[in-house]
Amino acid sequence: MPFSVYIIYSKSIDSYYVGQTSNLSDRLRRHNNSGSKATKKAKDWTLVHEELFETRSEAVTRETYIKKQKSKAFIERLIAEQ
After folding, report:
1. What is the pLDDT of residues 26-81, one digit of tens each?
2. 24 to each of 17, 28, 47, 69, how far by Cα in Å?
3. 3-state SS, residue 3
4. Residue 29 belongs to a domain with what CATH number?
5. Which of 6, 42, 46, 34 is nearest to 22 (CA)?
6. Out of 24, 29, 48, 82, which residue is the most buried by the measure of CB atoms under 10 Å away?
7. Looking at the 3D structure of the chain, how many domains does it have?
8. Is 37 exposed, middle or buried (0-12, 13-18, 19+ CB in 10 A)?
9. Of 33, 1, 40, the residue nearest 17 (C-alpha)
10. Secondary structure (3-state) at 65
11. What are phi and psi of 5, to 5 degrees?
12. CA 78 remoteness from chain centre
């Protein structure tokens, strides 16, 4: 089962969120229905970037790396490079 590192974007609050999951469609649905404390401020989250990994460990490592950048510019470069 592949694991996804994903970046979602909310236009209404001009914000990105980075996460990882094994079921992206379900996770995105939950983000848009207040299923996450970090994303409950908006209901218009859309997928803007996805990377696939074979193990959860690899996905968590990549998610952590992206989050440690603490940079909207870094995230926007990732999205532009797709």
Report:
1. 999 999 998 788 899 999 999 999 999 999 999 999 999 999 999 999 999 999 99
2. 13, 6, 9, 23
3. strand
4. 3.40.1440.10
5. 6
6. 24
7. 1
8. exposed
9. 40
10. helix
11. -100, 130
12. 12
